[in-house]
Specification:
Layout lengths: L5 H17 L12 E4 L6 E8 L2 E10 L6 E6 H6 L9 E2 L9 H11 L9
Antiparallel strand pairs: 1-2, 1-5, 2-3, 3-4
Length: 122
């Protein structure tokens, strides 16, 4: 399975370009996650919001490696695509994921719970 569909890639790149235009200003954007990736044989999860326009193999995401300390930062899509876990399983895209709010709400909920959660209400 490809990590991203063409539509998701287009949206993530558009978000990256929009964020680059306002980076470092009070107007930084709070995107809704576009795609959720996960390790089917482990506890890792990533919620991607944007791709770096100059380096589209780098995504901004809320990253949860299953160690109780999720963080927002960059992740290499090349590394994720090349990863093989138990039973040779690779990282997969959650086909049923639909964001329920901006990434800031997911970050707040993840910090509160120690992991990425679907229920982002307080």
């Amino acid at each position: 399975m490809k990590l991203l569909t063409q539509a998701q890639c287009t949206q993530l790149l558009d978000n990256g370009r929009r964020q680059a235009a306002v980076k470092g200003t009070p107007a930084e954007l709070d995107f809704w996650p576009v795609v959720k990736l996960f390790n089917p044989s482990g506890a890792a999860t990533w919620l991607l919001t944007e791709l770096e326009p100059e380096e589209p193999s780098v995504a901004w995401a809320l990253c949860d490696l299953g160690m109780g300390c999720p963080e927002f930062g960059t992740v290499s899509l090349d590394e994720l695509a090349g990863f093989r876990g138990r039973f040779g399983l690779g990282i997969e895209r959650d086909l049923h994921f639909s964001a329920r709010g901006p990434i800031s709400a997911y970050i707040e909920a993840a910090n509160r719970e120690g992991r990425i959660v679907e229920d982002i209400s307080t």
